[in-house]
Structure formats: structure tokens, C-alpha cells
Amino acid sequence: MTEGVSVRRMQGGADADGGATSVPLRRPDAGYIIAIPARDEAARITGCLDACARAVVRARPLAGRILVLVNNSVDDTAARATAWAVRADVPAEVVSCRLPRDLAHAGAARRQVLDLARARLGKDGALLTTDADSRPDPGWVVANLAALRRGAALVCGQIAFDPAEFDRLPPQITGSYRLQARWRHHAAELAARLDPDPHDPWPCHGLVAGASLAVTARAWDLTGGLPIVPRAEDRALARRIRAHGLPVRHDPAVRVVTSCRLAGRASGGLADTLAAGLVAGDHQADEDFEPLGVLWLRAVLRAQVRRLLDDDIDPAPLLRWSGFDGHLPDRAAGFGPVWTAVDAQHPHLARQRMRLSDVAAGLPRLMAACRALRSGHGCAEDADHLLHGTS
């Protein structure tokens, strides 16, 4: 057995605080740990682990580990992961458990495995996570750690579907996905150009997905870690990190290839995004899409609040002028808490679900707005046109 391999079985699941019930390894010598929740992934777990191992080797001499939590599986995921760990040339650990019924979801499983990983790290370590049906690029660990060293507290990677699998999908699915991918790309550019974030400069991709996340141990401890929610735990973590004023980087250099299955292990994930393309008629777009006028207003207000706080100026008068009548924390709390309050309470920033027809109709104007900003011609008149036009 390779030195550092640990293969164990754990009973129960998370405690009342979402913490892990397992004991750390004797030697917490890793600089980072790749934490992988896995449930009924026998067909894909070995490919995921092979890819993670290549990324660990590429990152040497920095010491890293792989930790797999196999939860509530009825197939031989645990056996295959264990067999892989025994013959692997990187330190690996496989833990099996059965989460209680009310916690048998993706959010709790990812929180559990990340808690286990955190217990094995020092305060200067990093937690990386991916999905068991995904394959990180060989440079995935190196790129994540580089972004963390540049100051990010959370790094969100770029996700691509397996091209061979994607090409076999029905055209209504691939067409819907490509349309939404174009919207996401240009929406991220628009926001980055209107509100330049020094920690998330353009190019950035705007996607938050559990298939590729990296967070510092310090940020994990400060914020309380991943929220235990049944779906969209990845986005909940990003919101929590931002609410504490910590930088989030959507780094296109951090890349992962994931599967194109239409029946995922968790609701609200990438599988549901793809499967929505099978729905006849005009289905809803991804939940974080919003009409162009709202997207523009959010970015402009965020930039103005950021600048005012940087200059130690109270943003309340500006916000009242924009229609905000909610409660703000003291500006000494910093940009993260202040903007979180604005985002949650501003009546003109209320989330509005878009349909696919809205995305198709608004995309040409979104692309035109990006072209104007690239050329330096974006101005208040453009904003007025976008805010009062149709999306």
C-alpha cells in the first residue's frame, strides 16, 4: 500500500453544526487536499481520480492529498475508489459513510468531505473540491493555488462538458446550452468592465460550480464554510465568501471537464441545466441570469458603492437616489457586508427569472453593450437606453 493511503469506514454523518465526526490523519502535512464527494459513481470515479492524481503530480514538490467521501452509495464506488487508492502514487484516503435521510443531498455531502479535509490541513492550507464525474486538467491544482496566492479567498473554475458526450446530445439541448453559455460569457464581461474588480479582472467566466472550487483554510474558518443546503451549495458558498468581503476569482485558467448526463445526482446542477433543453417550448434559463437592465444597474451601483467606500464616503445618499430605502450596516464593516445588504434589499435589483426567449432576444443588445464598453464608448446614455429598453 502506498505511504499515506488511508481507507476507512465512518458511521453516521455530519453533526448538528455540519462538522465531521472523523479523526484527522496522524500527519497533517498536506499543503492542500482535493475533496471529492461521491455517490453511485462507480463508472466515473476512477477517471476522476486519475485526473486528480495527474494534477497533484504536476503541483509537486508541494504536498497534496486526495480525499474521497463515498456516501449513501448502492454500487461499488467505494470498492473502486479503494482499489485505486491502494495502487496510486499520490497520498489518498477513502471514507465511506451513510448520511441520514435529511442530509442525503449534495450540499451536505460536499460539506462533510470538506470538513474532513479541513481537519487534515494547517491554517495556511487550501481546500479544493471537484465532482466524481469530472476530470480536472493536469494544471488544475497549480492554477488554483496560483490564484489563491494572488489574493483570492475562493477560486471558481471554468467548466466544460466532455466534447464526445456533448456531441451525442439532442440538438435542442446543445442549442439551449450554447445560447446560455454565450449569455453568461458576455454578462461576465459586461459586469467586469462596468465594475472592475482587481481580484477578478477580465477575462473571467462568471460561473460558480462545485465541479471546481478552491478555498483557503483561513477563509473557510472565518466564514463558517460551505452552507448545508440541498442544492446550489456552490453558489451559497460564493455568496457567503463575498458577504465577508473576501475576494472571489472566476479564473478561466482553472479548467475541469465534466460529464453530460441528463440525470444528475443532485437537483439544480449541471445535469438539470442540460435536461431543461428537453422541455418543449420556452423553458426557464439558469437561475442566476437576469435581464440586461438589471445586470447593468447592479454592476454600476456595485462599482459606485465600491468606490465610495474606498474613499470612506457614505454611500447612503447615492443609494437613496437610486431607489434604495433599506437598512445598511456601518460602512466601517467594509464593502462585502454593505453590498450584500444593498443586493438583498434594493427593489430594482430583485431577482427576475429569465426564459430562453428572453435570453435569445436580449443577447444581441448584451453583445452590443460589451462592444461599446470594449471600445470605450459606454456612457450614461447607453445605460439609460439599456435600463428603459426591453430585455
Itemize the secondary structure elements and their pairings.
Layout: E1 6-9, E2 30-38, H1 45-58, E3 64-71, H2 77-87, E4 92-97, H3 106-118, E5 121-129, E6 134-136, H4 140-149, E7 154-161, H5 163-167, H6 171-194, E8 213-216, H7 217-223, H8 233-243, E9 248-258, H9 270-275, H10 292-310, H11 316-321, H12 335-345, H13 356-374, H14 380-388
Parallel strand pairs: 1-4, 2-3, 2-5, 3-4, 7-9
Antiparallel strand pairs: 5-8, 6-9, 7-8
Helix pairs in contact: 6-10, 6-13, 10-12, 10-14
Question: If you had to describe this structure to a student in words, what would you say it looks like?
Answer:
The chain is an alpha/beta fold and 391 residues long. The protein has two domains: 273 residues, Spore Coat Polysaccharide Biosynthesis Protein SpsA, Chain A, CATH 3.90.550.10; 97 residues, no CATH class. 42% of the residues lie in helices and 16% in strands. The longest helix has 24 residues. It is globular. The C terminus is likely disordered.
